[in-house]
Specification:
Belongs to the multicopper oxidase family. By secondary structure, the chain is mainly beta. The protein has 7 helices and 33 strands. Helix content is 7%, strand content 33%. The strands form 6 sheets. Strands 23, 24, 25, 27, 30, 32 and 33 form a 7-stranded mixed beta sheet that branches. Strands 10-9-12-17-14-15 form a 6-stranded mixed beta sheet, with no helix packed on it. A hairpin with a 7-residue loop joins strand 18 and strand 19. The chain binds 2-acetamido-2-deoxy-beta-D-glucopyranose (4 copies).
């Protein structure tokens, strides 16, 4: 199905004159959502985290709109910037973000990548799953607790909005003595020492929603600096750096500080057994915390970030500068790429090779579910696919996610394309049309090529997912992100034969004992890579109810490649009534008059 969309980026400026009265549909009573006792909402939440002090409520206003950046490039910005403002809070603080959508004719939501949303599943930011999308001119107030420490980030849920610039860092600190690896470093200054890496494109992707051609990124960028980000260090001291791959394409990043080693201490916010390495490889959506010690000759060193996959050939650099070093000539000469950057594979470590800092509780009798991931056997045409959020509440004004056309053959899970539910799955499950649902494992009962894939899981019952990148029709690596839960990554299997995989072969390998699992201390991650023609096996125990997406963040520009993991939960009617319902957003054309 095709829809005529006029990209009204000029009108964006018209609507910006302040005349439009924006109506917000905030939950009327905060205490329904969260028990927060703090008053000090407007003190900066970026502070040293201490014991025995009350958590704070940390408020942010995000206005998202198309803007021209300093380099005259269009981008979707948050308060005029991309990446958006970093959020730095302490453990147990309450984060409140008012997101105002000023992107004409488009609907957005914001996802808080890695945040568990314990008790607030409706703040997870997935349109038509955990909330109604925020239509143009509307506001949604996100409020959730920073319930575990670590390195996170936020981004628009749609891959296109995210790629156009809607993302930023989110760091949750805790008192230093609680940090398991505090002895390995001297400084943990997350505001200065976070490198969040994104891509830039020659055009605004969301301005050409119907154009199915693929536009490759033309640069990768660290933080907001078009120039080099600078990390100043004092000789002899150890520094904790937080590395975030905030790219929504299949672009692994290899990060290396010349002539220094890095000690990895955490991945996806969870501590690991420290490993020292020359370089780290971080997949899209992954984070790694590393310690770099200023133990070399005083001077200036390049930190190289090089793209792989779809970002092959793109590099960017930051600077590691010892205090007192005059780096003028370094800036003039630019990075020396040839001599210093050669790396052997074995000098690079990935998140899935790490082991968690503590042994994990073992799980017996876990039910194993095979998910077949591949490009479709038959070419899928635009006409076969519905790109709308098919809301029943406002049938005359369909909500649009940021895609109206297939840019490629969308990757399928168990042979199905993703369909947005007609009512928010979490909030109004009884309103979701049953014939649009495919139950994982029983897909054959639904003849539609596009459906809402749902895996029904039970509270506190462990699930094992075998993510199988079968590779019959692609040679790609895919990266999946789990909302709500950390996954124990018990196996990453690269296929030595490099031949396409099938469920039967997997079962045969299981019977032959070829698939061993690390159930003692697997890394616990929210983002995992699934190798080409290989397997990644993850386990998780649903500890809180909700409708949680497991999605490929790097498979498609057009529609999500996802399943919903549904864990029963009853949300009080009071809460549901206080959240915006899909029909209650004001349509954009009213605002413009
Ligand atoms: C909010 O809800 C709490 C608990 O339900 C109640 O005690 C309080 O009076 C409410 N506040 C307002 C302003 O309605
Ligand atoms: C805190 O915020 C309130 C309302 O937004 C404002 O009136 C007050 O002046 C602020 N206080 C400080 C110390 O900034
Ligand atoms: C740093 O080096 C540049 C060129 O090498 C020189 O012009 C400049 O004066 C130096 N700055 C300081 C503060 O020494
Ligand atoms: C994948 O790679 C193999 C071997 O290099 C090649 O024969 C095959 O055509 C590729 N498949 C796709 C879909 O690109």
């Amino acid at each position: 199905m095709r829809f005529l969309i006029v990209s009204l980026f000029i009108i964006a400026n018209v609507s910006n004159n302040g005349k439009a009265s924006l109506e917000s549909f905030l939950p009327s009573n905060d205490s329904i959502l969260l028990s927060d006792t703090t008053k000090s909402s407007n003190k900066s939440c970026n502070r040293p985290c201490k014991f025995n002090v009350k958590p704070r409520q940390c408020r942010y206003d995000f206005e998202i709109k198309p803007t021209f950046g300093e380099d005259d490039r269009p981008a979707l910005t948050i308060n005029g910037q991309t990446p958006g403002p970093p959020i730095h809070v302490c453990l147990h603080d309450i984060i409140v973000v008012k997101v105002k959508n000023k992107i004409p004719n488009q609907d957005i939501t914001m996802h808080w990548h890695g945040i568990e949303q314990k008790g607030t599943p409706y703040m997870d930011g997935v349109p038509m799953v955990t909330q109604c999308p925020i239509s143009y001119g509307s506001v949604y107030e996100y409020a959730f607790a920073a319930s575990s420490p670590g390195t996170f980030f936020y981004h628009a849920d749609s891959v296109l909005h995210h790629s156009d610039g809607v993302y930023g860092a989110l760091i949750v600190d805790q008192p230093q003595p609680l940090e398991p690896h505090a002895a390995l470093y001297d400084y943990d200054r997350s505001d200065e020492h976070t490198l969040i890496v994104g891509t830039r494109f020659p055009e605004l992707l969301t301005a050409r929603l119907e154009d199915p051609s693929y536009i490759p990124p033309d640069s990768i960028i660290i933080n907001r600096n078009e120039d080099y980000s600078k990390i100043f260090v004092i000789p002899g001291y150890g520094y904790r750096l937080r590395l975030i791959n905030a790219i929504a394409l299949e672009c692994p990043l290899v990060i290396q500080a010349y002539r220094h080693v890095a000690t990895v201490i955490a991945t996806d916010g969870k501590p690991v057994q420290p490993v020292t390495t020359a370089a780290v490889k971080i997949y899209p959506g992954e984070r790694m915390d590393v310690v770099i010690r200023a133990d070399q000759e005083s001077g200036g060193y390049w930190i190289r970030v090089s793209g792989e996959g779809l970002c092959e050939g793109l590099n960017t650099y930051a600077m590691l500068l010892y205090s007192g070093f005059n780096y003028t000539s370094m800036l003039l000469d630019g990075p020396n790429t040839d001599t210093e950057s050669k790396l052997e594979d074995k000098e690079t470590i990935t998140g899935q090779e790490l082991q968690s800092a503590r042994d994990v509780p073992s799980v017996n009798n876990v039910k194993s579910i095979y998910l077949k991931i591949d490009r479709p056997h038959l070419k899928v045409k635009d006409d076969d696919i519905d790109f709308r959020y098919l809301s029943d509440a406002v049938p005359k004004k369909p909500f649009f996610p940021a895609a109206l056309s297939l840019r490629d053959d969308v990757v399928q899970i168990n042979g199905k394309n993703f369909l947005y539910p007609n009512a928010p799955y979490l909030l109004k499950p009884r309103e979701v049309r049953p014939e649009t649902i495919c139950v994982v494992g029983e897909e054959k009962n639904n003849k539609q090529p596009q459906c809402i894939l749902v895996l029904n899981a039970k509270l506190n019952e462990a699930v094992e997912l075998v993510l199988a990148n079968e590779g019959h029709r692609s040679n790609e690596t895919y990266t999946f992100h789990m909302h709500g839960y950390g996954m124990q990554v018990v196996k990453t299997w690269e296929n030595p034969g490099n031949t396409p995989l099938s469920k039967e072969e997997f079962h045969k390998m299981e019977r032959d004992g070829l698939i061993t699992r690390n159930i003692k201390n697997p890394p616990v991650k929210d983002t995992v890579m699934v190798p080409n023609k290989g397997l990644t096996i993850v386990r998780f125990t649903p500890t809180v109810g909700g409708s949680w997406l497991l999605e490929c963040r790097s498979c498609s520009f057009s529609l999500p490649v996802a399943i919903i993991i549904n864990v029963p939960l009853s949300i009080p009617k009071l809460v549901i009534d206080s959240l915006p319902s899909c029909g209650s957003y004001r349509p954009a054309d009213v605002l413009l008059n």
